[in-house]
Structure formats: C-alpha cells, structure tokens
Predict the 3D structure of the following.
Amino acid sequence: MTKKMMTLKDFLNNNIQNSKKISSTFIHSNLKVDDLTVEPFKHITATLNDENLTNKTFHSQRIVGKGVQYSYCIPEVLENDKKIPLLVNKAAFQNEFDNMDYEDKETLNFFQGSFVNDKNEITSLWQTLMDKFNIKPYSQAYAGFQFGNFSGQLGDGRVINLLDINGKTIQNKGGGMTPYSRFADGKATLKASFREFIISESLNSIGIDSTRALLLSHLPGNKARRGAKLEPRGLVTRYAKTWIRLGSFDIHRWRQDFEGIASLADYCIEHVFGEKNDNNYIKISNLIDLNSGNDAYDVLNMTKYDKFLRDVVQSNAKAVAKWNAYGFANGVLNTDNTSIMGISMDYGPFGFIEAYDEDWTPNVDDVSKRYSIGNQSKIIWWNLLRFAESQTMLIGSGKKYIDGVKNRTLDVDKEIAQYLMDRTVKILEYIEAEYDFYYNYAYVSEMLERLGLSPDKIFSLECDVTELNEHDFVSLSKNVLDIKENLIDRLLNVLKQTKVDYNDFFIKFQQVDTIEFVNKNKTIKDEYLDCFTAVHEQIDSSATEMCLNNIDKLFDINLLDVDSSIYKDFFGFLQEYNILWTSSNQSKNGSVKEIKLEVSKLKNPLFIPRHYHFNEVYKSLEDTDFEGTEKLEKLYLMSSNPYDASKWDNKNLFDVQKRWTNLDQLCKAENSLNLCGCSS
C-alpha cells in the first residue's frame, strides 16, 4: 500500500513539538546574527511595507560587523517573478522528507522561495514557521582564499537558507540579492542551475558525497546579467547536512575574531560531526615519531578541537580520493567552496575527465592549472592548512590551557605562546600524515574496486585501521603505496599515452574474462584490445595518430616495442594485477568476469553526464523556449541511475540514449574538448 503524500502545511502541523523533524540549528545555536537584520525582521510586516527598508536590509550588499555569522534575509521579489518547475527530485521528497507532496502548489511555492504572496503578505507557511518554530530565512557569512589569494568577505550572495527537515538544511540558490551579493545581481543562470542539479544527483548516485538537488525552476519573467549579456534565469533548491565550508572560519580569522572561530567550531562539533572517543582515530604514535623534534606537548591527550580538526581532514581526504578515482574535477577548489565534511559543493566549471591527463582542468579560466585533477589532493591539503591556521588557538592550547583560552582569562606570556605554537606544529605534523594515509588508502581502495579487486581481501584487515598497532599500520601504508606505484600509476601512464576514454576503460576492463595477459610472441592478448577502442580525437591529427600507434605497440606483432614505456607500463600493470588477483581470489568460484563484476558493477558507471550532454540538453531547452523538457528529464534519469541501464526508460528517446552512450560520438574532438568558465 502506497503511503499518502503529506503537504508541507500538514507536515508542520503534525510536528510542532518535534525539533528532530523541523528545526533551523544554525540560527538556534550560539552563533551571531547580523544586528542590522534583527529589528527589521522582528517587525517584518512593517518592513515589507517599506520597500526602501526591505531593500536596504535584505537586498543591499555590505560588509557585516565583526563576529557576524549570518544575516536574516528574505528572497527578493521582482516583477514577473513566476517560477516554473522543470525538474523535481521526487525520490528525495518521498524518502528524505517523509513523503512530502511535491504536487501541492503551496508546498512547491515554499521550496521555490516564496516568502510573500501576491498581496505582499507573509505566506501562511512562513508565518507558521516563525510563530511556532522560531525559524527565519537567512544567509551565511564567510570568506575565502580564491586561487591562492584571500578575497575578504564573500558569503551567500544568492542563497537563502529556508529550514532544516530531518537534519538536512534546505536552501534556494538564485533567489536574488542578499547582504553578501557584492558586485553581483543575486541571480543564477538557468544553464548553471540545471548543470548543478544534474551533477549533484549524478555524483550522489555514483557514490560520491555531494550536496543534493531538490527542485529546478525556470524564472522566465526576468534575466540574470552576466557581463554585457542577459541570460535565462534559473533557481535550484538544494539541501545538505551542512553548508559550512572552510571559508566560514576564514572570515573570523581575517578579523582576528577568536570568539567567532570558537563558537562556530563548537557548533560543528555538536551539530555536524559529534564528539567522538579517542579510539575513533588512528593512533598518533602510528603517524609520527613522538620522540623526535619538539616535545609532544601532550598531543596524545586530545581535546574536542583536535578531534574536530581530524574529522575535517579525514573527511576531505576521503572525498578528494573519490573525485580522483572517478576522474571528477570541481574546477574551482577555493576554501569558500570546500565543505568541512568533504561534501562536493558549489558547482561551476566542473567536469569528468575524458582522456587522462593529470594537468587537465575543466576550467577555461584556470590557466595555471591550479585546480587540475592532478593537483586536487594537494589543493585540498593547502585549503586544510588555511583551516588549521584558523584553529591555532583552539588546537594549540590543549587540555592544559583550553579553558583559559576560551574564557579569555589566560595571560599568554612568552612561555605559553611557545607552548601553543609547538603543540600546533606537532598536531600539523600528524594530521598531514593522517591526510596522506586516508587519501592514498581511500584512492587505492576505490581504484582496486573499479578494477574488480577487493581491497578487503588484498589488505586482509581483521579490524579497522584505527585499531592497528604500529607494525601493522606501517605495513598497510607501505602496501597501499606499493599498489599505487606498481598498479595504478602504471595504468594512468598508459591511459595518458593512448587517450582512451577514462571511464570506458574500466567498463571494458571488467568484461575481460581472463587474467592471462601476454602471448608467446610477447604481444598483449587480444582480450584486452577492446579496452582501447574509445580513443579521444586530439585537435592535432598527428597526436591522435601517435595515440593509436602507442596502442599498436602493445598488440600488433609488426609494431611491437617491448622497450617502449607504454609496453613496460601496461605489462607491469597486468603483471601486478595478476599477482593481486591470485592472492585475493584463491577460494572464489566462478569465471574471472563474474568475480570482477561482483566488486566492480557498482563502481563503474555506465553513464556520466559530460559537457557534450549538458550542451545538447540546454540547446533543446532554448529551442523550445524552455518548455520542452524531454531531454532534460532523460539526462536526469540516466545520471541518477548510472549503474542500471534498465531504469533509463528505453521507450522514451531511445535514439538519444544510444547516441549519448555511443563512444564514437563522445570521442570526437568537438564533443570531448569542451571547457567551462567560472560564471554561473
């Protein structure tokens, strides 16, 4: 029996006393609100009747006061502000938000950011939220290091946070100006909004933590200005467990605001990560030599702030490992769009790599390749160092001084200052080792699974890594790095020299039904040739010929070159693969292909959305005056079911589906070399 859907109005009425269902923890905690928005919101009805006051309070950019972490803010109401839903995440409404009725007009209007009705009166839903739950819409303050340089105050320049449902904060992006809009108009283009909706759900379905998309809307009545151009306007309703980013701490560090840093850290510990036991973390003695260099300064006696730092570091290490394993590049990894939880967020010029090259970036504006796929793990670590610098007083004080530091009663003399510095240095030493371990361990594990190998069997762990003694931890770390060097790095060298499609290689490799790999004449067995059929055309045709020639050096007896780097790398990769396979699958029954697929079938997506797909879909929207959503819905369906083609609805646009998965089409130079800019 299908459960009856519930309108948001009924949901609120049924949960008046249930703060686990409905809340707004960010504004209900000990965080500082922008004073300039308090009184106008306290008298919101009168404020709404004064257009100048409304615009000055909520829709005019300004530098907020020291310590401010958010401002109350309402969506901007413009003429012809009609919002037309184009995509609805029905599964999220049903499964994450208690079978919320996404067909109910009042519910839909709320999630599209309607704060007032046609008479400029507060909607009944918002009146209920304010009166019964003390919930108000708000925008967060933060700063950030962008392309390595500090950019000052940033903040939610076009985002309004609505409320928390079931522990997820729901917000609108593109709802108009806020106090943090700076030089921009607070709007979002429809093109950027639909790209964010699709990639959010694609990554989540692949298994990469991401912010989520709930609703995509088109606002046909007004445009978003981008430079000299006016572009169709969109709005994406999205949600996440938290929207706090490393840049949320940067703003307080910039202002030397220790209270702001401490209160935000306390909030994150209580509401985001939770305070954990020491045994939830790798033993520090496994990470560094406690007897070398500075005195340990009691780093073994961890405070909750030490653990918070470790949580942020560990989460981000695991996140970037998954990005790199799947060939996903964010394109702009500034501190203001690096989540404290390692959640992929704030999508601009993102993309999946097509032909492997560690210098590749989807961002046409990133001429220095700072955010290239090969740099992502280094950049996230750089960002984490900036975050750690903001935490210096909290992590440096240790249990010995933390109370005095937080209460501002400690007289920091030269000796105490040295203690704070030395303890911080020691902590940075071990969190760097911890970051490196978790990145490499997660990355190698993910790549092994994509190749049909079980990390559990290869590493033979009988307990969690946090429980390992020093000898076993060192052994595991060495094993991980050996596999990375002897298996994965060799494979990447081959992929780079052949320019075969990165994702397709793994799909084809899992179909190879043998672990034998070399013929008597030293050529590679033909069973592996199919892995190299999808070669991306290069702008220079001679470069394409070189890639094809490199493939021939592996399989064609007339062109075989056993001394070439590509032969040595692929031979070495297959040799190492054979060793790992034999050691980990001795007791398995079934064919090689069957055993591989047990591991890899939910690790190698049959479809990933590429620039080529995004461009075609957006053109179809433009050509139908944004009313023809068939291709948009098809892209959403395929992107959110990447491992199961049976869910792609073959009866609908099957010709499009075939073309979108046709590697011959995808590998054409005009389709595989697209880049994006930062504007959205």
In short: The two ends are 43 Å apart (CA to CA). The first strand starts at residue 22 and ends at 23.
